[in-house]
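Our preliminary data section would be incomplete without showing what the modeling component actually yields. Below, a chain of 114 amino acids is followed by its predicted structure, encoded as tokens that our downstream tools consume directly.
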Amino acid sequence: MADENVINEDLDSRNKEKKEKKHDSGAADLERVTNYAEEKEIKSDADILSVINNVKRQEYADKLQRDQELSKVAIKKQDVELIMRELEVTKQVAERSLREHKGNLSATLVMLTD
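Predicted structure:
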């Protein structure tokens, strides 16, 4: 009887070791899969952010170029004052609108009143 108890205990301890190894193996496999998925998500997020940053840089460069082109357009101070007084807009809005319409007062007034 004592021999049977020792044998049963020995078998039980071996079974527990096997179960623990299997359990550890599964956890390790799960950890590898999880890490891979997380790395993949981080890479895709980084790609998306780089695309967004590139688009923003391009938009900013286009805006600067447009502003430089508009600053070359000659406008009359009288026209700016007229627009500011009659339409009650800021000087920046009046100047920008006149520059966008190449100094054409009537086109600027039509655009601002519509």
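Helices lie at 2-71, 77-87, 91-100, 105-113. Residues 73-114 form one domain. Preliminary results of this kind motivate Aim 1 of the renewal.
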